[in-house]
Design goal:
This protein is an alpha/beta fold. Helix content is 43%, strand content 19%. Strands 1, 2, 3, 4, 5, 6, 7, 8, 9 and 10 form a ten-stranded mixed beta sheet that branches.
Length: 327
């Protein structure tokens, strides 16, 4: 009898603490630490968003959430690791416009299916890019920029964080929609491009709003011409959108979200419920707002649809702009 009791006890332990059971249960997940991969170095906007959301989920679950930076290949290393991880929810990633918008649009072959290998738990939110000018340049608006570029084709220069990144493609989209020709000066990082426009070495720059550009505009070191989202930033309400400046269909948002390898519908729904709950908490809202991130949660299907739309959009931009070197 004692042997039978001990056997049943051991079976119970194996059942209740088995990762597969935990992954398919609405109650017991997580039963061990969860890992969120970040495809970029520590300290950037993507990394900060992951850490803030990870801490909020850790507090909500009462279980550790570990941020694991796997920089390289434009976020591709972390993306591949996530796609090929166990389908149990214990490995997720901070996916963004780079990993699931631009990279699939610019890569002819990937070691994973950017859509079908993933569960798109929920969007977190996003922030705009901002087009900036040196204060002494006569360009004070997008209309001025367009007029100047048409009068001086190819002579206006703008800096960005590099070829193929969201700021670069923001301008390529603007060029396609207006027919202007301005010259791209790619830098090895957004800070270097911003420094040169502040110093007057180049007249224009475009970058992600949080961090350097936000403080530079507020201090008057550069002039904000327009933000790339369809809505004005609450951080810079005086700076109009590109859409308001005569291009109503223009929109670029540097979005963030949480993805994982493809999960069963039950676990996917639970993770979505938990993530949306913490995103709606006032504490996390304030922390993300301080980083310039506008919160926008979603259902997994809404997020999946958004990713599809983004890839189609950027493929079209790359083709029409004849940016074959990105493919």
């Amino acid at each position: 009898m004692r042997i039978l009791i001990n056997l049943l006890y051991c079976l119970a332990i194996l059942f209740f603490f088995n990762p597969t059971y935990a992954a398919n249960s609405d109650v017991r997940f997580p039963s061990r630490p969860v890992r969120i991969l970040v495809g970029y170095a520590p300290g950037g906007g993507v990394d900060m968003a992951a850490r803030l959301v990870g801490q909020a989920l850790s507090d909500h679950w009462g279980s550790s959430v570990v941020i694991d930076n796997r920089a390289g290949a434009g976020g591709g290393i972390a993306t591949e690791l996530t796609a090929k991880s166990n389908n149990d929810g214990y490995t997720m990633m901070l996916c963004n416009i780079g990993t699931h918008g631009i990279t699939p649009a610019t890569s002819k072959k990937l070691p994973y299916d950017y859509l079908n290998d993933f569960s798109f738990i929920s969007r977190i939110g996003g922030n705009p890019n901002v087009i900036m000018a040196h204060p002494l340049v006569s360009i004070r608006s997008i209309s001025d920029l367009i007029a100047n570029a048409k009068s001086n084709p190819g002579k206006l220069i703008y800096g960005s964080s590099g070829v193929g990144a969201s700021p670069h493609l923001s301008v390529e989209l603007l060029k396609l929609m207006t027919g202007i020709n301005i010259t791209h000066a790619p830098y090895k990082g957004a800070a270097l491009a911003l420094a040169d426009v502040m110093g007057g070495q180049i007249p224009l720059s475009v970058g992600n709003l949080p961090g350097g550009p936000l403080s530079a505009i507020k201090s008057g070191k550069v002039r904000g011409l327009a933000v790339t989202t369809t809505y004005r930033s609450l951080k810079l309400p005086e700076v109009p959108t590109v859409a308001e400046s005569g291009l109503p269909n223009y929109e670029v948002s540097g979005w963030y979200g949480i993805c994982s390898s493809r999960l069963n519908s039950k676990l996917e729904a639970k993770l979505n419920q938990d993530l949306v709950k913490v995103l709606n908490s006032s504490a996390l809202k304030q922390k993300l707002d301080d980083q310039g991130i506008d919160i926008l949660s979603s259902t997994p299907e809404e997020f999946r649809t958004h990713v599809k739309t983004e890839v189609v959009k950027w493929k079209k931009v790359i083709k029409e702009a004849k940016l074959e070197y990105l493919e």
